[in-house]
Amino acid sequence: MYNQIVVCEGTHDMIKIQSVYKDLKCIITNGSEISDDTLKLIKEYSKKYEIILFLDPDYPGERIRSKVLEVVPNARNAYIEKKVCISQNHKKVGVEHASREDIKRILDPILNTRAKRDNPDITINDIYELGIVGNKGLREYISGKYNIGNPNNKTLIKRLNSLDITLSELKKVVGEYNA
Questions:
Q1: d(CA 84, CA 50)
Q2: Model's pTM, two decimal places?
Q3: What φ, ψ does residue 140 adopt, rounded to 5°?
Q4: In angstroms, how far is CA 55 from the centroid of its own chain?
Q5: How much is the CA Rg of the chain, to the nearest whole Å?
Q6: Are 78 and 102 in the same domain?
Q7: Residue 128 falls within a domain, yes or no?
Q8: Could you give the angle at which helices 11-20 and 100-111 cross, rounded to 10 degrees?
Q9: Residue 118 within a domain
Q10: What is the pLDDT of residues 59-117, one digit of tens each?
Q11: Are 107 and 135 in the same domain?
Q12: CA–CA dist 174, 84 (Å, integer)
């Protein structure tokens, strides 16, 4: 049994997620027009469960993520790459179109780690010193390695810290890129 609840956009997303994790609870937002009642429900569940946001890699998905993070700022984020969740006819993008293997690859590390620490390990000074600022290729490599979308520097720090990535782990990834 999981002590987490995944927030996803629709019924098909939930079915796909639960095909991989049978006992994992999901809350469906019913698309980008997430209601106040749904936000209240998520906030209430966050008192007992860890909330994980697993939303489509598009504008509506990011809009939902933003609204949920306003009411549950400690929710954890799972990001799926657009290239692995495109429908067969190439007209839609979403979690429901991802393979079971990709869903497992993305959610396993989050489901199997504890919630983020109160004290972040990675700071803005660290990413300056590691040469990440101003190096788009390196930032994209790091983002791809940890599957966290394509954030700017400030958001990169937040996302790495939310995944409990340590500075030493980040240094190792930077070393891989530079090798």
A1: 26
A2: 0.73
A3: -65, -40
A4: 8
A5: 16
A6: yes
A7: yes
A8: 70
A9: no
A10: 999 999 999 999 998 899 899 988 988 988 988 999 999 999 999 999 998 888 765 55
A11: no
A12: 24
